[in-house]
Amino acid sequence: MGFILSLECVEKVDFEVRESFGDLIEASKALDLESYFKCFDADRFVGLNANGTNWNSIEDLKSFICPIFGMIEKVQSLDFTNITVSVIDTNTAILVNEYEQSVVLKSGDVAKASGGGTQVWSKACGNWKLVSVSASTKPENPNDLSE
């Protein structure tokens, strides 16, 4: 039988994870790669891209994220419409979210995206860090699930 966390403990973990998620959002809005990757546990990270391929290391994620950040001139908006945290224990939590984003590319074009993500946060090394991310994109037409 597992242990039960007190409501106070759950609320504390929830607050801390949301605060760390906020740091990730701010780094994304600022296109600050250094601050962005400080949110990840570089030794333990694995993840799943929205296209169904794995990120088997932080280097795999960097090779995906860095070129994207490099194409963006400015983040017009990055809004999270649905954030839920599930506290597993005092050192582990899962955060799910839905987002909508609009960016101005260096070409001058505006690109919009929406989707969601599942993030596994760990405090094993003293600070909350991402150890896994799974990304998804929403279809342009919500009634068309074939995308």
TrEMBL record:
UniProt domain SnoaL-like: residue ranges: 17-136
Tree of life domain: Bacteria
Record InterPro entries: NTF2-like_dom_sf, SnoaL-like
Pfam families on file: SnoaL_3
Cross-referenced SUPFAM superfamilies: NTF2-like
The name this protein goes by in its record: SnoaL-like domain-containing protein
Organism: Pseudoalteromonas luteoviolacea DSM 6061
Taxonomic placement: Bacteria, Pseudomonadati, Pseudomonadota, Gammaproteobacteria, Alteromonadales
